[in-house]
Amino acid sequence: MAKIIIPTPLRKFTGNQATIETNGSNVLESLQSLAETHPEIKKHIFDDAGQVRKFVRLYLGDEDIKALQNEQTAVQENSVISIIPAIAGGSK
């Protein structure tokens, strides 16, 4: 079971849990497991086609999954996946 670290803005969709243990052999399956367990988070991670939203960054340990095999990156029992949502804003 991989562990997913939930960023603060999305914790309201996971019962305020900071980390969630998930099932899956890769990053995508782990995220799908998270969405099955906590359906309210799904729309914040996946688009209508079921793809991970473009603005959501995912890391396996310290590595951006884009430098690995993207969502197909294999996970192990002790893997840690971090969800990093885009932050917009700033001053004029």
TrEMBL record:
It holds the Pfam family ThiS. It comes from Adhaeribacter pallidiroseus. InterPro entries: Beta-grasp_dom_sf (IPR012675), Mopterin_synth/thiamin_S_b (IPR016155), Sulfur_Carrier/Prot_Modifier (IPR052045), ThiS/MoaD-like (IPR003749). It comes from the Bacteria. This is Putative sulfur carrier protein. PANTHER family: SULFUR CARRIER PROTEIN CYSO (PTHR38031:SF1), SULFUR CARRIER PROTEIN SLR0821-RELATED (PTHR38031).
